[in-house]
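User: Here's a chain of 793 residues. Predict its fold as tokens.
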Amino acid sequence: MEIIVTHINTDFDALSSLILASKLYPQAQLVLPGSCEQNVRDFLAQYPHEFNLNKSKHIKLNRVTKLILVDTCQLSRIGKFQTLTQGLPCYGRIPIHIYDHHPLQEGDIKGELMEIKEVGATASIILEKIKENNLTISPFEATVAALGIYEDTGSLTFPTTTSTDIFAVAYLISCQADLSVISRFLEKQLSFDQIVILNELLSSQEVHQIGQTKVVIARTVIDKYVGDLSVLVHKIMDMESFEVLFCLAAMEERVYVIARSRTNKVDVGEILSEVGGGGHKTAASATIKNLTLDAAQKRLLEILNKKLGSSSEMITPGEVIPSIEIITYLHPRNFRHLINKSLALPIQNILKLVGDVGDMLKVNVYVVGGFVRDLLSGKPTFDVDIVVEGNGIEFAEKLIQISSRGDTSSVYYKSHERFKTAKVIFADGFKIDITSTRQETYEHPAALPTVISGGIYHDLLRRDFTINAMAIQLNQAHFGDLIDFVKGETDLKEGIIRVLHDKSFIDDPTRIFRAVRFTSRGDTSSRGDTSLRGNFKLADHTKELIIQSATKELFERLANQRIRNEFILILNDDNPSEAIFQLQEFGILKYIHPSLQFKEREELLFKKIAHTLFYLEIIISHKPLEKWLIYLLALIDRLSKEEAIEFMEHLKFTKVQQKTVITDKENSQTLIESLKTHKKPGAGELYQLLTGVPLEVLVFIMAKADAFDGEEIASSIKKQIVFFLTELSLVKVCITGEDLKKVGIKPGPVYKEILDKVLAAKLDGKLKTKEDELKYVREFNCKDTKNTKEIKE
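Assistant: Prediction complete.
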């Protein structure tokens, strides 16, 4: 029996090499010697009947007459089949044929036929043999082969790619390889575990100067098995301008080492062969047993010193290397057309100008976050956040210099030196925020972040949700290219709120408020209908993380002002009831105040407030109104005055806001009863009743009456308050103190009494003009010798 075997932890190049080799050896059995990478497992699960693959346990070694090895010649990577390389008692040494693109290392298996070429993928080598023998392959076999070549060459972008690989792909496409299948399986979204590990590797980087070479070592400890670590290393190399990278991961009592090199000075395959690993000059891996992570790193540095130089100097722990061009890896979609179509011309011009300045300074520059999210969802915003892979303040200075053409009085900026941020204000008042790309760490849960410099990847990964972790590049050569590491565009289309890593809510609990706020944003075409659900829903895992994170201890660590600010943002949304309801469901309301509840009463009040605001929108558009404060009055309506004051002080609301709440608690019910009793009070009486009451309290009174006092009473109360707001509150007395002085009245407190009486008469319709008011004053018999006689009508 002939068998074709590849290496343990089979990747797509290994799988495709198995399939293609079966064309050269049609009688051979295809064997997987052990585990497969996750994306290969997914592929085989989707196409379970396309190939006749055998597991190693089903192969009896004493029946094997020929061993064909593909994509490996390492003894340690073929499992139990290494026994066959030493010969069997019944046959002696059996024929071994080897097809591999890894360079030979000492101790590798030798065969009677060895097709070893340093190309990008083993599949390319075998495909050449298939063409030489005029053999044919099916479209599906061509698809699998192309998967292998694309994966091992980084879609033909890795330095190991050769013309052999490129011609092989061209031939496979002529054989009708399905590129949509290839795209689907090669562009997998990272799991949350992988994103966490990637973040840890990026934040743990140490740069060592060894001889003439800078070597970066990144490390992590993983408490459970996570596959496809090589994918993460590929991502890091594509994001950063490292020459040499070694990633060490301690996992399941082993240290896994994956290495990449972009320089001919460092052969990582040769270096890792010293610890039982191997691979190419540019890519290699090893598994080290019986050593701790620290000991494994120490051993690696000893080997590097021996191979590259006599001493090793660590430059800076965690030093961040500037980001390189990453869009080649990402194959970005371009949205130049959407920018031109959706944005006003002045904003288009500013974005293009920002890109031009980036080119002048030779730095990458992007528009990020909510601007990108809203642009892609068809709701362009005027909040423009720019990030620069460089010094944000220097960038702002250059931008002002170029845009003002020397007249800096028309354009200016405000800066924050510590964080390298600036706000640029243009002549027409339009503002943009400019920051340096950075990464953040948290000393403890709920702490404010510690900020250090970083590339665009670090800057996007520090954000709250995938839909906010996108950027659009503005440099001229890539203007409009979408930078999207975490499939934010996909989540945006599907309406998913997803955090970037498992510790996101622990690092910053305010993200919980933002998550539920997104889910409460409904279609606002029917304003006032609080039954509308939001456009977004929480991803299942994100919801689980909120439940796990929502503890009293965590929220006690959070600064009260930060809770207040997030609370205000939620209550300012068009549909705050959904978000407040979710905060209760997650058990968070009780951490804000133990008496807070959102039940049928509160839900009804929220609905009536929405209807009332819709009714008043045009009527009181000229009056400043804090909408969120009205909803807050409803939320704390069941609290006593003392509890409400405690709540407001605890979250550090302003004195004015606290006064509004106190006014509501002391007067709103009395006012409702008064308005019920006096269904048609005089204008002056109504003015005296309502003047000085905060507008938010008046709106809440209208909503509360609508909720609990019946249609007729509610309508009467609403009409009285609207009459006050639209007419009575606008009535002004024409005469002034100067006029009273001319009449002969001595200045003093009596002036206020006179003017109040004039206003009351005017409200009741007795006075129309200034002359009427002066005549009204003269009619008072108030001119005695001291000018202090009591005023009488």
